[in-house]
Amino acid sequence: MTHPNQSGAVAGPRRKLRRMRVLYYNGAGGLEWRDEPEPVIRSRTDALVRPIAVSTCDLDQRVIRGAVPLPGVDAPFAIGHEGVGEVVEVGDAVTGIAPGDLVAIPYHVSCGICDRCGADLPLYCRATAAHGVAAYGIPFGGGYGGLFSDLVRVPFASYALLPLPPNVTAIQSVSVGDNLADAWRSVVPHLRRYPGADVLVMSGGTIGLYSADVARACGARVVHYVDPDPDRRRIAAELGARTSAPEEFEPSAHEYQIALNHSSGSGRALRNAILATAPGGYVESSSFYFNDIELPLPTMHMKGIHFSSALSNARSHMPEVLNLLSSGRLHPELIITDVIPFDSADQAIPTAGYKPVCVRRSSSGIEET
Ligand SMILES: [Zn+2]
Ligand SMILES: [Zn+2]
Question: Of the ranges 89-103, 140-154, 167-181, which one carries the lowest mean pLDDT score?
Fold first, then answer.
């Protein structure tokens, strides 16, 4: 089997124990390239993927800026779990993908076979996540490395990896395996329950922006976007949302059938989202919480409000997210703040905007823009 090497030329059979670069978070707000052995195919169901467009998700941004402690996680660690890659090599039991394909990569590692994967809970896969969530780029469970690297091993590749539609670029798809899937699952199932609903987005990052974009694309009547950041409010307005700063938001002024809390763990934002929800409405929260937060349970009970706080089972939603992207109805180019050469990730990410994408050429030589 042959494969493209880093310069795009075709090399001979993959030699084991070649070296590669891996981007590490150093635990003190910095990123650094380290030299490590390349991964190799260990199982017939593995693939090796060369990441070609990788971003930081909202959690990465907070980790890099020192705002989020990760209990039980020691730095330094290989970072990056949101991205798109080019298939370089596949095990002989892998079907549906081949070397040269551009693929979306889910942030979590899952088998696609067990009962939990079958129940659309691949984040809790029995084969990979028995001792905690198994993901790239954050060492919660298993050493799968980070996507800011020259090569990553993807187990259960036939299930995990989804080829990009031909009319979608790697940059447009960079968040399909994490933040965009998270946005999608927080709003689309509820829009199917309440077509044309009014949607409230309490935001503190890009999941909120993606949610506003998805909500408009999928038929929300009004999208009200609340964020302390004026740049993100400006982008949300371009995406068709009404916008407010948090201090301007009055939860009793309107009722929303769908209210989202993507505000980076703000208890006040969550409370306001709940108080602004219409009877029978849905409150979805993607935020990480590190403390107990008091909820307005009397209001929730009397209004019959459904509340969910959860991580995303991204892989289950990715086919529909890719279809929506392919339809041309989303505007991810408005949300991405910086496009950075992959080699510059260590220096550029800490000083870039909240949604940088690091890119390099695929072996076909197509410049991803
Ligand atoms: Zn993430
Ligand atoms: Zn599984």
Answer: 140-154
